[in-house]
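Lab channel / #folding
Pinned by the channel admin:
"Please post every new chain as: sequence first, then the structure tokens as a reply. Keep commentary short and put observations after the output so the thread stays searchable."

First post following the new format, from NK:
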Amino acid sequence: MFKFLKGLGADRWKAYGSHKERFSAAFPGHVSRQFFGFLEDDGESPGSVVYSSKSGDGVLYEVRVTRVMEYYGSAEDFLKTALVTMASSMTDCVIVRQKSEVFRDCPAIAFEASIRGAMSLCGVAALRDRTLYMLSVFFRSGAQHNLPRFLDGFEMLR
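Reply from TO:
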């Protein structure tokens, strides 16, 4: 895993869980949920759900859960494709570092990205069965964040 800055002093993080998306996490504040899909928001149909929370200093913490019906090739190839797709969906986003690893006993890729040189995005993309979990922190380049705390507070539920 890459070394990230630890900067949030006050411990106001709150536990949050989603039985539907099968995870629990700690967020720095109020959590909002958005569903993106064409079918039902039932926790089984293909679609994406984004859970996000912004810290007092403007750092955005997200858990993006994407349910896929099927993928072809290796889990690592699927994860690399997911990162490329994420980067191409944002204007001037470039993946500057990525490393294959295991996260919560699942194949994963740790990543860092730069957006227009002014914003940064870092996190982990992990694949469990047919569910992609993308945990990310979005912040002004050089600003402090607490990705380690965010990752430590995340669990995938059965």
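NK: Residues 75-88 form the longest helix (14 residues).
TO: also worth noting, DSSP finds two helices and ten strands in the chain.
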